[in-house]
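Changelog note: in this version the structure field was regenerated for every chain. One regenerated record is shown below for reference.
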Amino acid sequence: QVQLQESGPGLVKPSQTLSLTCTVSGGSMATSTYLWSWLRQSPGKGLEWIGYIDSGDSTYYGPSLKSRTSISRDTSNNEFTLQLRSVTPEDTAVYYCARVRPINYGSERPPVDRGQGTQVTVSS
């Protein structure tokens, strides 16, 4: 059974870059038809899908964050990373990494195969 675990700083200063890593176990990223995704949820708001990277290294970013987002992967370590540049307090949220089938990307329902989430606060 696949397991995903987010890691990274819990506090980021405004204008800095938020960097998170997702470590995947129990499943290979190299030969997979899944989309390795990042999403977030702020208090009182629904899920916001940030973007994904697939097994061919193609990426997709949601329009609201596209100009500030990069997703990459390291198949040798079975990890993928999120970088969100020029953060503001509006980027404060619980961030999740997930493995989803293409048909389920963007769903309002939380993905089944996801990490436990990591709280990121943007504050000086």
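Spot check on this record: The mean pLDDT is 94. The first strand starts at residue 3 and ends at 7.
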